Amino acid sequence: MSSENSTLVKLNNAGFKQNDKWLVEGVSLTVEKGKIVTLIGPNGSGKSTTAKIALGIYKNIEGSVEKYTNKVGYVPQKISIDWTLPLRVYDFMLLTENIKDESIDEALTLTGVIHLKNKNLGNLSGGEFQRVLIARAISKKPELLVLDEPVQGVDYTGEIALYELIKRISDTLNCGILLISHDLHTVMTATDHVVCLNGHVCCSGSPMDVAKNNEYKTLFGEQASQILSVYEHKHDHVHSDKGEIKKN
Amino acid sequence: MFDDFFIRALIAGLGIALVTGPLGCFVVWRRLSYFGDTLAHSALLGVTLAYSFELNIALSVFIISSLIALILIQLQKKTNLPGDALLGLLAHSSLAVGLVVIGFLTFIRFDIMGLLFGDILAVTTDDLIIIWTGGALILLVLKLIWKPLFASTVNYELAEAEGLNPDRAKAIFTILMAAVIAISIKMVGLLLITGMLIIPAAMARNISDSPQKMVIFSIIGGLLSVVLGLYSSLEFNTSSGPSIIAASLVLFILSLFKIKQSIKLKN
Fold first, then answer.
1. pLDDT tens per residue, range B8-65
2. Distance CA B157, CA B159 (A)
3. Is residue A104 part of a domain?
4. Do the domain assignments include residue A76?
5. Among A149, A110, A148, A103, which Cα is nearest to A132's?
6. Residue A31's domain is classified under what CATH number?
7. Domain hosting residue A64, numbered range
8. CATH class of segment(s) B5-190
9. pTM of the model
10. Sheet containing A193-197, strands listed edge to edge, beginning at the edge strand earlier in sequence
11. 3-state SS assignment for residue A63
12. Does A36 reach chain B within 8 Å, measured CB to CB?
């Protein structure tokens, strides 16, 4: 199924230890072109750490990371920017790459914040800033997008629109997306592959597989599996990954 | 034309201001003022070495300052002491060792005041060559590392994740700091070099809303400070370093009015 050249990043049994404590260990996953891989798990389960391992931010890791692209867009979960810097949204869009003005305008329009282009970054609200972060990541037209809770602080209608946008980007740019999300509903509807973390990989597979997994149910409760049933009810198709369904 | 000491000082000062302008912005953005101070203090040791072994002053200062920066990085890795304590330790001990060594070099008459506060009479034609070629080199390298350095100043992880190699940019920037101190020590003096880096940049921050503007205003502020400072130094017979820094302080105070204005406009 996975040909070599469509792989963007591959983690082989990767883990990261800080102050003699494992933040996450034994993670294997592959992000391919045009596919969305989602990491779910409780707080402190190593989702952001896994993303940072995939991005190469952490250096002394166990296992290995194979990265096949340098065109990366990253929306971190936490970002602390020092406001002693005079920085407009426009300057921020050019932070890591010189992008054409049209691409900047296009990305800011897609995320609904084009009117903020010349505003100082420090004066934005949390939700506005989040939209700018997403715009910056997609304006580079990356091959790999890593989105760590990309819609935090965004209002509800905006959240849905942004997730739709992310799905659309994955299709149109044919880029691979590594997504971290708390919104199980989104995860279950718009994802190709789910990795459920709790310090290690507790289960992974298609959204269907994961939802049926007992460990997943223990982590997220019965409610979580109901989300899936809502989804199955709404749409009349099932993502079938032949021969991959695990019975528990 | 270069025969006149004042013209030489002016050309030297303008060359220095062109370099300290953009570098100073990074010193302010990255909160490196005490780091700059430490490198500048260690420069005294470099000067004494230059006299002892008859080396070029700028070269010897550059080597010692780079060495101190390396030692600092090692100490940061190997000890549990906070950064400011390590900076203080290195700044004062290198200054002290420098002064002790001067005590031993009885055969040379030192102009300590000139070393600490700058001396426009000391600028030679050779110094001009060092300042302008060194300065051009510093600016060229800064331009090359601008993207990764600036991106990692805004956010380290974004820069690292998107493949910009911020660690290398940081290491190169440290060397540039040592270099700018080396070329400006004669003019501004080792106690006031950090002022030349910080004050025009701080002034520029008050009147800028983008990084590019801040760099440009910082350069303009530095150039104006040099011109105003050197003329008053000539007029009142004061040391060149303090005069230049005092001029930049005046510009900073003027820039505060602009802040007041923009706050009023917002309300």
1. 999 999 999 999 999 999 999 999 999 999 999 999 999 888 888 888 888 999 999 9
2. 5
3. no
4. no
5. A110
6. 3.40.50.300
7. 1-71+180-248
8. mainly alpha
9. 0.86
10. A72-75, A144-148, A176-180, A36-40, A193-197, A201-205
11. strand
12. no
Number of CB atoms found within 10 A of residue A67's CB:
17
Dump the DSSP string for B19-61: HHHHHHHHHHHTT-HHHHHHHHHHHHHHHHHHHHHT--HHHHH
* Extents of the domains making up chain B: 5-190
Query: Span A52-68, mean pLDDT?
Result: 90
Interface contacts A/B by beta carbons within 8 Å: 75
Task: Locate A66 and state its tokens.
Answer: 């194979």
> Given an 8 Å threshold on Cβ–Cβ distance, is A84 in contact with B205?
yes
**Whether B154 and A86 lie within 8 Å, measured CB to CB:** no
Query: From CA A130, how far away is CA A134, in angstroms rounded?
Result: 6
Residue with tokens 């965004």: A154
Q: What is the pLDDT of residues B167-217, one digit of tens each?
A: 999 999 999 999 999 999 888 888 889 999 999 999 999 999 999 999 999
Residue B231, number of CB atoms within 10 A of its CB: 14
- Say if strands A61-67 and A7-18 run parallel, antiparallel, or are unpaired: antiparallel
pLDDT tens digits, one per residue of A141-169: 999 999 999 888 888 888 888 888 888 88
- Identify whether A60 is part of a domain: yes
What's the mean pLDDT in B103-131?
83
A107 within a domain of the structure (yes/no): no
Mean pLDDT taken over chain B: 90
Residue A59: burial class (beta carbons within 10 Å; 0-12, 13-18, 19+): exposed
Residues A149, A154, A158, A163: what is their CA dihedral angle, to the nearest 10 degrees? Answer: 0
Residue contact B160–A82, C-beta within 8 A = no
Q: Which two tokens stand for residue B126?
A: 């050779």
Domain count, chain A: 1
d(Cα A35, Cα A6) in Å, to the nearest integer? 10
Tokens standing for residue A199: 């310090």
Given pLDDT bands bounded at 50, 70 and 90, which one contains residue A237? very low
A72 vs B31, B162, B209: nearest CB: B162
Q: Measure Cα distances from A178 to A74, A148, B40 in Å.
A: 10, 8, 46
**A203 to chain B, closest Cα gap in Å:** 27
| Dist. CA A114–CA A122, nearest whole Å | 16
Transcribe A128-185 into DSSP letters: HHHHHHHHHHHHT--SEEEEESTTTT--HHHHHHHHHHHHHHHHHS--EEEEE-S-HH
